[in-house]
Design brief:
By secondary structure, the chain is of the alpha/beta class. The protein is built from 17 helices and 14 strands. The structure holds 4'-deoxy-4'-aminopyridoxal-5'-phosphate and glutamine.
Length: 409
C-alpha cells in the first residue's frame, strides 16, 4: 500500500513551476505559492501599509472611457466578442500604430485583441516556441516571462541589464545568442528597471536577431509612459517588422489594469499562429471593454502627453523622498517604477527588507532579485522597486514614512 497522497502537493513540480522564479512561486516545501505581487499586496493590506509594490494606479482612467464601457454594457455588448477582437478595437489599434509610429498593420489580418498583455505574451510563446528552443530575455525580467517560457517547454536564457542606467552588457547580449535562439523577448520601456532602450541598443538586438534568424516578441505596455525620451517601437527599425510581434495593453496607458484588454500586432503568419493558441486560452476578451478602449485609443495627443507629464511629476516626488531616506536612486526614463539600492542603508538582502518594510515603516515595495535567475539575483541583491502610479499625497506620505527607516533598521 502506498501512503496516502497529499493532493495539494504536486507529484513533481511541472517545468513551468520550476522555471517560474522558483523561490517565490514554489514554496520551499514544494507547495504552489503566489506571485511576489500577490504576496506584497496581501502584506500591505494586512499591515495597512501604503502599497508601492504591485504596479496599479490608485485612480481610475478618464471618466468618459468608464462611461463608454457602461454604455456598451447598456447597449447589449455582453456576449462573446469575435476571437480576434471587435473590428472597432482592431481598427483603433491600427490607427494608434499609424498615428504614433507610422506603422500600418492591417486590422483584418495583422492585429488581434488579447486578455491583457499577459495573454499576448503567453499565446505568443506557446505558439512560437517549444522544447529545444531558447528564448532570450534581459534580466531582470517581468515575472510572467519565466513562467511562460517554462510552460512552452523552451529554455530561458538571459543577458544582464546593469545599474545605474540598466542598459544591456552588449558583449553578454551577443554571447547569449546561439543557434537555438528562437525568440528574443524584449520589454521596452522595461519593468522592473524603468530603462527605455535607445536606438543603438534596439538596432543591435534587431541585427543579432537577423543574424541568428530568430523572432522578436516585444512587450511595449509602457509605450506612453516615458519621461523626456521617445519610445521607439522595435518594429519600426530597418529589418525588424517582418520578424516582430508587438504587444501592448490598455492597462497602463489608460489606468484600467482591471479590464485586461491588450493587443498584438505583426506579420499575418505570426499573428495567426498566436490567434490559434489564444482561442484555447480565453477564446475571446471582454466585449464591452473592447468598445471602451477603442474610444480611449482615439483620445487626442494631449491626453497621452498628460499621462507622461503627470507620472514624471510623481516620479520626481517619490525619487526625492527615497533619496532623502538614504537610498541610492536610479532615475527611470519610463514605466511607473523606480529602483533603489538599499546598500547605503547597510542592507544586504532586499527580499528580506521587502518582507519587513510594511511592518517597519508602513510602505510595501518589490525586491528586484525576484525578477532574476540565481546569478542575476545575486547581482541585484540589494535593489528594491517602488511604484509611483499613486496620488501625489500618497507618495508624499510614503516619503515621510520612509524618512524614518534608517532609525528603525
Ligand atoms: N508586461 C509587463 C512588462 C508588465 O509590467 C505588465 C503588467 N504590469 C504586463 C505585461 C501585463 O499586462 P496586462 O495587465 O495588460 O496583462
Ligand atoms: N505588472 C505589475 C507589476 O509589475 C503587476 C501585475 C501583476 O500583479 N501580475 O507590478
Amino acid at each position: 500500500m502506498h501512503p496516502p497522497r497529499d493532493l495539494f502537493l504536486p507529484t513533481a513540480p511541472a517545468p513551468w513551476q520550476r522555471a517560474a522564479l522558483g523561490a517565490n512561486l514554489l514554496g520551499q516545501d514544494g507547495q504552489l505559492g503566489v506571485t511576489i505581487f500577490e504576496e506584497m499586496t496581501t502584506l500591505a493590506l494586512q499591515t495597512g501599509a501604503i502599497n508601492l509594490g504591485q504596479g496599479f494606479p490608485d485612480e481610475d482612467g478618464p471618466a468618459e472611457i468608464r462611461a463608454a464601457a457602461q454604455a456598451a454594457i447598456g447597449a447589449g455588448a455582453n456576449q462573446y466578442a469575435p476571437g480576434k477582437g471587435t473590428v472597432e478595437l482592431r481598427e483603433a489599434v491600427a490607427a494608434h500604430q499609424e498615428r504614433f509610429y507610422g506603422l500600418a498593420p492591417d486590422p483584418q489580418t495583422e492585429v488581434i485583441v488579447t486578455t491583457g498583455a499577459t495573454e499576448g505574451i503567453a499565446a505568443s510563446l506557446l505558439a512560437l516556441t517549444g522544447p529545444g528552443d531558447e528564448v532570450l530575455t534581459f534580466e531582470p525580467f517581468y515575472d510572467s516571462y519565466g513562467a511562460m517560457i517554462g510552460l512552452s517547454g523552451a529554455t530561458h536564457v538571459t543577458a544582464p541589464l546593469l545599474a545605474p542606467d540598466f542598459l544591456p552588457d552588449m558583449a553578454a547580449l551577443e554571447a547569449a545568442f546561439s543557434h537555438r535562439t528562437r525568440v528574443v523577448l524584449l520589454n521596452n520601456p522595461h519593468n522592473p528597471t524603468g530603462a527605455v532602450f535607445p536606438l543603438e541598443v534596439l538596432q543591435r538586438v534587431v541585427d543579432l536577431a537577423t543574424k541568428h534568424d530568430c523572432l522578436i516578441i516585444t512587450d511595449e505596455v509602457y509605450e506612453h509612459l516615458t519621461f523626456g525620451v521617445s519610445h521607439i517601437p522595435v518594429a519600426t527599425l530597418p529589418g525588424a517588422a517582418e520578424r516582430t510581434l508587438t504587444i501592448s495593453s490598455a492597462g497602463k496607458t489608460f489606468s484600467f489594469t482591471g479590464w485586461k484588454i491588450g493587443w498584438l500586432t505583426g506579420p499575418e503568419r505570426l499573428v495567426s499562429a498566436v490567434r490559434t493558441v489564444k482561442q484555447f486560452l480565453t477564446y475571446s476578451s471582454g466585449t464591452p471593454f473592447q468598445a471602451a478602449i477603442a474610444t480611449a485609443l482615439a483620445l487626442p495627443d494631449d491626453f497621452y502627453a498628460g499621462v507622461s507629464a503627470t507620472l514624471r511629476h510623481k516620479r520626481d516626488i517619490l525619487s526625492e523622498g527615497l533619496r532623502a531616506a538614504g537610498f541610492e536612486v536610479f532615475t527611470p526614463q519610463g514605466t511607473y517604477f523606480v529602483n533603489v539600492d538599499t546598500a547605503p542603508l547597510g542592507i544586504k538582502d532586499s527580499v528580506d527588507l521587502a518582507r519587513r518594510l510594511p511592518a517597519l515603516v508602513g510602505v510595501a515595495a518589490i525586491p528586484v532579485p525576484v525578477f532574476c535567475h540565481p546569478d542575476g539575483a545575486e547581482r541585484t541583491r540589494s535593489l528594491l522597486r517602488f511604484a509611483f502610479c499613486k496620488k501625489v499625497e500618497v507618495l508624499e506620505e510614503a516619503a515621510a514614512r520612509l524618512a524614518s527607516l534608517s532609525g528603525r533598521l
